[in-house]
Amino acid sequence: MSPITKERLETIHLRMLPFVHNTPILTSATINRICDAQVYFKCENFQKMGAFKMRGALNAILSLPESERKNGVVTHSSGNFAQAVSLAAKNLQVPAYIVMPETAPIVKKEAVLGYGGQITECTPTLEAREQTSKTIMDRTGATFIHPSNDMDVILGNATAAMELIEVHPDLDWVLCPVGGGGLIAGTALAVNTFTDSCKTWGGEPLNADDAYRSMISGKIETNTNPQTIADGLKTQLGHLNFPIIQEYVSGITRVSETEIKNAMRLLWERMKIVVEPSSAVALAAILKETDAIKGKKVGIILSGGNVDLGKLPFQ
């Protein structure tokens, strides 16, 4: 892996600027009071296609040489990354082949199609996803992009924290949710590169705490049928992002399903913004760490807002 320098990250960010939003940073006096800290929310729920994943997908495609880009890209995803790859590819005039399990919600399939992705359905197993992706790659010459275990995806994700740090360079903590590890790895690289003493911290559902256990055991742990409303955080860490997490992430806080719902509702009631449960995990974690963050400046990356408004979990 090439060295991760300020210059490299700044070049990536500059190249991406025409295609992504520099999302707003919001605050809440009520949440500041509850936490007894200054909390700054980097609102990736306002990103194009509604989540931070647009950043990683875009950088991964931009990083391909033209000889590969013209053959298209392929990924397997049932959620935000499927939409992100589809939209990023459309903006760059690149074919996007999306492998989705046949059980994926119709609304998600329609979103992918709306962004120009070409869907191939498969049975809902990882083996089927990978085999279907390989078949498409062999047929089209398309390049596979992993949703989280890809360095170009990780570095694209880093730009969210970079924008936060640019506005608030004196943060003490930056916290984000942990699922496949692509966001927290990118966040940790940005924090390590652009700050002197800021901590990177993660939030994770108690019912899908493989990253927490991985940091303790020193090897990538897995979940068996995790039951959590934070469906975007059920995936596991990868061999590329885990070493970054081990080196640069200070800790992970686990939160219950009730705590996730309460955090999601608090953001709705006090800030009038809707985030998906996976995103609310970050605030839920901070609410459990009020003793540690007292009097400090804390950045939280709200990872996305793609939630079914007819099925809000706190209703």
From TrEMBL:
<dbReference type="GO" id="GO:0003941">
    <property type="term" value="F:L-serine ammonia-lyase activity"/>
</dbReference>
<dbReference type="Pfam" id="PF00291">
    <property type="entry name" value="PALP"/>
</dbReference>
<comment type="similarity">
    <text>Belongs to the serine/threonine dehydratase family.</text>
</comment>
<protein>
    <submittedName>
        <fullName>Serine dehydratase</fullName>
    </submittedName>
</protein>
<keyword id="KW-0456">Lyase</keyword>
<dbReference type="GO" id="GO:0005524">
    <property type="term" value="F:ATP binding"/>
</dbReference>
<dbReference type="InterPro" id="IPR001926">
    <property type="entry name" value="TrpB-like_PALP"/>
</dbReference>
<keyword id="KW-0663">Pyridoxal phosphate</keyword>
<dbReference type="GO" id="GO:0018114">
    <property type="term" value="F:threonine racemase activity"/>
</dbReference>
<dbReference type="GO" id="GO:0070179">
    <property type="term" value="P:D-serine biosynthetic process"/>
</dbReference>
<dbReference type="InterPro" id="IPR036052">
    <property type="entry name" value="TrpB-like_PALP_sf"/>
</dbReference>
<dbReference type="GO" id="GO:0000287">
    <property type="term" value="F:magnesium ion binding"/>
</dbReference>
<dbReference type="GO" id="GO:0030378">
    <property type="term" value="F:serine racemase activity"/>
</dbReference>
<feature type="domain" description="Tryptophan synthase beta chain-like PALP">
    <location>
        <begin position="18"/>
        <end position="304"/>
    </location>
</feature>
<dbReference type="GO" id="GO:0030170">
    <property type="term" value="F:pyridoxal phosphate binding"/>
</dbReference>
